[in-house]
Amino acid sequence: MAVRSYVREARRKVGPKRERVGPILERLAAEHPDAKIALRFDDDLQLLVAVMLSAQTTDVNVNLVTERLFEKYRVPQDYLKVPVAELERDIFRTGFFRQKAKALRGTMKLLIEEYDGRVPDSFEDLLRLPGVARKTANVVSAERGRPVGIVVDTHVRRLSQRLGFTRQEDPVKIERDLMRLVPRPDWARLPHLLIWHGRRICDARAPRCEDCVISDLCPSSRA
Fold first, then answer.
1. How many of the other CB atoms lie within 10 Å of CB of 48?
2. How would you label 155-193 residue by residue, b for 16+ Cβ within 10 Å and e otherwise?
3. pLDDT tens digits for range 23-55
4. Catalytic site residue 135?
5. Is 44 an active-site residue?
6. Is-contact 156 191, C-beta < 8 A?
7. Which of 44, 59, 125, 153 is catalytic?
8. pLDDT tens sequence across 122-139
9. Per-position b or e across 81-108, b if 16+ CB within 10 A of its CB
10. Per annotation, catalytic residue among 90, 100, 135, 177
């Protein structure tokens, strides 16, 4: 009960979340003007592949793999022309390479058969692609300038909870809370800002609240 009481008091001190979300976004945008997706890509197909490969690994690791991968595989047909074992070797470093190779080949086959080899525009069509779940579809849609929801990764989850924007643990429920709270024009930039702030300041184990530009707006601040 003591912990809950402290949290309630902290929330009263920083103010309602709807009044804080705007200032928090603007301060984070000023603090992290370079906040953007860390994956490297030149077109929609490369974006889709990079995001699919990013599951359960780091963006740095994916970029190391795709630097050569995208020179070899330029169109959907390229992923189907090579033996499965060869594709698996080419993406081995990203982990779960067998599942990812299967998903990539299934996706490329569907792109060729039903979308003229192009990455579909609609969110629903993206979800039809093998290996593409809501998070991947959200990232692809947001990077194409058409966000349908809000990407929730480990950083977004942690910071959203610390900021008092949600009490949920499930990513889908967290996303719903954020979509109700954050203005739609900010759906694409919110995850980038939270991710970069999480990497640089709001660490999972040792948050640097004394260096945080939003500490006075955060009910979890230790500053």
1. 28
2. bbbbbbbbbbbbebeebeebbbbbeebbeeebbbbbbbb
3. 999 999 999 999 999 999 999 999 999 999 999
4. yes
5. no
6. yes
7. 153
8. 999 999 999 999 999 999
9. ebeeeebbebbeebeebeebbebbbbbb
10. 135
